[in-house]
């Protein structure tokens, strides 16, 4: 076990080295990839710039490709390094299934970018992509129990077997991680920025767990998957940061979400992972009235540019109040989660229901990069609190 632990430690620096090279390669490849995508007709208009310049779209494909090549090249490393079977066959199975799920999601994300798949269809794409992973999970670990929090133990016992519900939970996790990033979007740098903060939170969680003596295999495994992701994302962020020269596309949002779901599932920290998604959970719940069609949902809900000041302002939506949406609107506006701009008989104009618009409602209008920075700061504060909760206070509830 001592040899094993030592070699485990060796994997993390090696993975970091692979990640560094991947980041540099991605950084250099993205402009050329962008020109090719532009040439192939993959383009979008930057809606928050005065002249709406045309930028190449779907550069998540470049980051994802460099990531996958890096991971494929990394596969032999644990086996060459470890003659005493550091990553046993089971681990190799998990590793390849993880990469298969991520590859599949990258492919479906690009398909969505090209074909503009309808919401009712695309909602299920991540559940399809995560199936190989769930299969490997069931034949290897197959654990479907959760530890019950202390106050509920007299009722439910120490462990609760969730059985098939656990698999449903994992599929829902994959759906949530991918789509929740895709709907917290529309401002230069924001899709990649939030993903970088989530990924770094996972890195910190893994390192702290290793320090606290939790079983190393799962956390090292997670680190080897997430470090190269951080690197290619930072490279993409440089090109997508305000004023962006490329768009990341749904391809990147799906790729990022699936990578998080994969490490959460195989690293057995699916619940902790959700703690790193608090802004996305808020944005998802807040968006519900528009996603469910109770309030009309325009094609784009991103904040809008004030051409005179050059700053972003909340984008607005006008709709008819009816008995289904009126109570929701009343409550949201009462608790400060909605600004009403105009009201005319039954017709009302409010901000679009997104976290980005809400930050502008309360923080005042600001330039696009400041909004992206604000969102990343909110995410960082939430995630550091989550790590504190998980590593220092969880023992009170889960002794
Ligand atoms: C999601 C959001 C939509 C938001 C869009 C922006 C929901 C239900 N859907 O839709 O409200 O407007 O993302 O990405 O919440 N764009 C910019 N600047 C950016 C990023 C994107 O102008 O920094 C524009 C470009 O025209 C780009 C397009 O958004 O081509 C990409 O939109 P897309 O990712 O296809 O939208 P959805 O994911 O369907
Ligand atoms: Mg999108």
TrEMBL record:
<feature type="transmembrane region" description="Helical">
    <location>
        <begin position="18"/>
        <end position="38"/>
    </location>
</feature>
<feature type="transmembrane region" description="Helical">
    <location>
        <begin position="92"/>
        <end position="111"/>
    </location>
</feature>
<keyword id="KW-0812">Transmembrane</keyword>
<dbReference type="GO" id="GO:0043541">
    <property type="term" value="C:UDP-N-acetylglucosamine transferase complex"/>
</dbReference>
<feature type="transmembrane region" description="Helical">
    <location>
        <begin position="1"/>
        <end position="12"/>
    </location>
</feature>
<feature type="transmembrane region" description="Helical">
    <location>
        <begin position="159"/>
        <end position="177"/>
    </location>
</feature>
<dbReference type="GO" id="GO:0003975">
    <property type="term" value="F:UDP-N-acetylglucosamine-dolichyl-phosphate N-acetylglucosaminephosphotransferase activity"/>
</dbReference>
<keyword id="KW-0256">Endoplasmic reticulum</keyword>
<comment type="function">
    <text>UDP-N-acetylglucosamine--dolichyl-phosphate N-acetylglucosaminephosphotransferase that operates in the biosynthetic pathway of dolichol-linked oligosaccharides, the glycan precursors employed in protein asparagine (N)-glycosylation. The assembly of dolichol-linked oligosaccharides begins on the cytosolic side of the endoplasmic reticulum membrane and finishes in its lumen. The sequential addition of sugars to dolichol pyrophosphate produces dolichol-linked oligosaccharides containing fourteen sugars, including two GlcNAcs, nine mannoses and three glucoses.</text>
</comment>
<keyword id="KW-0479">Metal-binding</keyword>
<keyword id="KW-0460">Magnesium</keyword>
<comment type="pathway">
    <text>Protein modification; protein glycosylation.</text>
</comment>
<feature type="transmembrane region" description="Helical">
    <location>
        <begin position="59"/>
        <end position="80"/>
    </location>
</feature>
<feature type="transmembrane region" description="Helical">
    <location>
        <begin position="220"/>
        <end position="237"/>
    </location>
</feature>
<feature type="transmembrane region" description="Helical">
    <location>
        <begin position="244"/>
        <end position="267"/>
    </location>
</feature>
<keyword id="KW-0808">Transferase</keyword>
<dbReference type="GO" id="GO:0006488">
    <property type="term" value="P:dolichol-linked oligosaccharide biosynthetic process"/>
</dbReference>
<protein>
    <recommendedName>
        <fullName>UDP-N-acetylglucosamine--dolichyl-phosphate N-acetylglucosaminephosphotransferase</fullName>
        <ecNumber>2.7.8.15</ecNumber>
    </recommendedName>
</protein>
<feature type="transmembrane region" description="Helical">
    <location>
        <begin position="189"/>
        <end position="208"/>
    </location>
</feature>
<dbReference type="GO" id="GO:0046872">
    <property type="term" value="F:metal ion binding"/>
</dbReference>
<keyword id="KW-1133">Transmembrane helix</keyword>
<keyword id="KW-0328">Glycosyltransferase</keyword>
<dbReference type="GO" id="GO:0016757">
    <property type="term" value="F:glycosyltransferase activity"/>
</dbReference>
<comment type="similarity">
    <text>Belongs to the glycosyltransferase 4 family.</text>
</comment>
<keyword id="KW-0472">Membrane</keyword>
<feature type="transmembrane region" description="Helical">
    <location>
        <begin position="123"/>
        <end position="139"/>
    </location>
</feature>
<dbReference type="GO" id="GO:0009060">
    <property type="term" value="P:aerobic respiration"/>
</dbReference>
């Amino acid at each position: 076990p001592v040899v094993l632990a030592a070699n485990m430690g060796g994997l993390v620096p090696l993975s970091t080295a692979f990640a560094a090279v991947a980041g540099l390669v991605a950084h250099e490849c993205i402009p050329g990839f962008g020109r090719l995508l532009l040439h192939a007709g993959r383009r979008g208009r930057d809606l928050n710039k005065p002249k709406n310049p045309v930028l190449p779209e779907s550069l998540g494909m470049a980051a994802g490709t460099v990531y996958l090549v890096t991971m494929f090249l990394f596969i032999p490393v644990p086996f060459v390094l470890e003659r005493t079977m550091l990553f046993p066959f089971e681990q190799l199975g998990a590793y390849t299934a993880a990469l298969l799920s991520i590859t599949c999601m990258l492919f479906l994300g690009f398909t969505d970018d090209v074909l503009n798949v309808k919401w009712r269809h695309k909602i299920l794409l991540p559940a399809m992509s995560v199936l190989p992973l769930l299969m490997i999970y069931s034949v290897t670990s197959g654990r479907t129990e959760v530890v019950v929090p202390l106050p509920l133990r007299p009722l439910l016992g120490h462990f609760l077997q969730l059985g098939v519900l656990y698999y449903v939970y994992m599929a829902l996790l994959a759906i949530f991680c991918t789509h929740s990033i895709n709907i917290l979007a529309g401002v230069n740098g924001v899709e990649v920025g939030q993903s970088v903060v989530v990924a770094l939170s996972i890195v910190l969680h893994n390192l702290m767990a290793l320090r606290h003596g939790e079983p190393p295999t799962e956390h090292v495994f997670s680190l080897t998957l997430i470090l190269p992701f951080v690197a290619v994302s930072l490279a993409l962020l440089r090109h997508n940061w305000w004023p962006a020269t490329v768009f990341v596309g749904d391809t990147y949002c799906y790729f990022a979400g699936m990578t998080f779901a994969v490490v959460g599932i195989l690293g057995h920290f699916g619940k902790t992972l959700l703690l790193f998604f608090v802004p996305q959970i808020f944005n998802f719940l807040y968006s519900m009235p528009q996603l469910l069609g109770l309030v009309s949902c325009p094609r784009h809900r991103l904040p809008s540019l004030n051409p005179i000041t050059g700053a972003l302002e909340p984008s607005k939506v006008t709709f008819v109040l009816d008995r289904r949406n009126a109570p929701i609107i009343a409550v949201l506006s009462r608790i400060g989660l909605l600004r009403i701009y105009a009201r005319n008989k039954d017709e009302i104009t409010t901000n679009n229901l997104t976290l980005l618009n809400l930050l502008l409602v309360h923080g005042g209008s600001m330039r696009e990069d400041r909004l992206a920075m604000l969102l990343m700061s909110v995410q960082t504060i939430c995630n550091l609190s989550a790590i504190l909760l998980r590593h220092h206070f969880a023992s009170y509830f889960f002794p």
